[in-house]
Amino acid sequence: MSDFSIFDGHNDLLSCLWADKSFTGDAFFGERDGDLSLEKCRKGGFAGGFFAVWVGGDPGTGPDPMAVFREFPAIDCARAHQQTIAQIAILLRMTRARPDAIRLCRSVAEIESARAAGAIATILHIEGCEGIAADLDALHVYHAAGLRSLGPVWSRPNIFGHGVPFNFPASPDTGPGLTDAGRRLVRECEALGVLVDLSHLNEAGFWDVAKISTKPLVATHSNAHAVTASTRNLTDRQLAAIAESRGLVGVNFGCQFLRLDGLKNPNTRAEDVLRHLDHLLKHLGEGGVALGSDFDGAMMPDFIGDAAGLPNLLAAIKAAYGPELTSKISWGNWLNLLGRVIG
Ligand code: ZN
Q1: What is the CATH number of the domain that holds 97?
Q2: N or C: which end of the chain has fewer CB within 10 A?
Q3: How far is the CA of 200 from the centre of ligand 1 (A)?
Q4: Is residue 1 situated within a structural domain?
């Protein structure tokens, strides 16, 4: 068991459960091969986080998963709408069935009370809004169902904007920014108290959100471009804008976003994570850095493995920064940020 409780900025459990046809979420409570299960979370101190809805590419489309440059085509919105609802329903069924183990939270107060009860606190997040039409009606319905965070795009284009393709070494400045519908989506999210995640936007989209937003800027699962020049990572200019807004970046554990060579190689070490943490702390300050694992969505370093291995990472962070800053990075900074965005 870890000395630290962990609140995490991103995982893809729900889309994995959907793909495995575990529509009640039962697999999470039993033994599953993935990064997250109840037992692995309890072992590792994983006490809460953003649980993402994510819809994969249309069958037969998409690049080789091991390619360095990966560009993804737009997907069918009717299918995305259906799957978005299905994945939200998985989380609703899980949290209804086992409130002792996992709870849907809509506020920091609900996160704190889940933690006090020993239950995993979940924030419902949508990663790529193909399941929302330009009228934004679905946003209101999802919000009523508990949605408190979304990324307008995943790494592909949709009616709201242009996601950043995966590439290395390359700039995140890969195309046009938000559409008019995208700007309306950002404004409506602000009005509802829904966090707008910048992690998969290209650079122009990032600056469009920064221009409109009055809230802290947040990238739930991204790293430093100056360290690993992936299109998915943030340039120092972007980090300066996040710092100015008193925003936050969750460090992504995906090997290709951490390593100096940008490769998907699980022989990735704690020092690779610490190199990014050093850079992010320098640019964002002690209150602007947290964790954003990408569990069940990216290749994890061998030294972490899955949620049960989080204490290995936390031990390295504690050795580098001491217990106080480690507990801000692992829990406190996310709660502080969420208090200022969703309440
Ligand atoms: Zn992602």
Answers
A1: 3.20.20.140
A2: N
A3: 6
A4: no
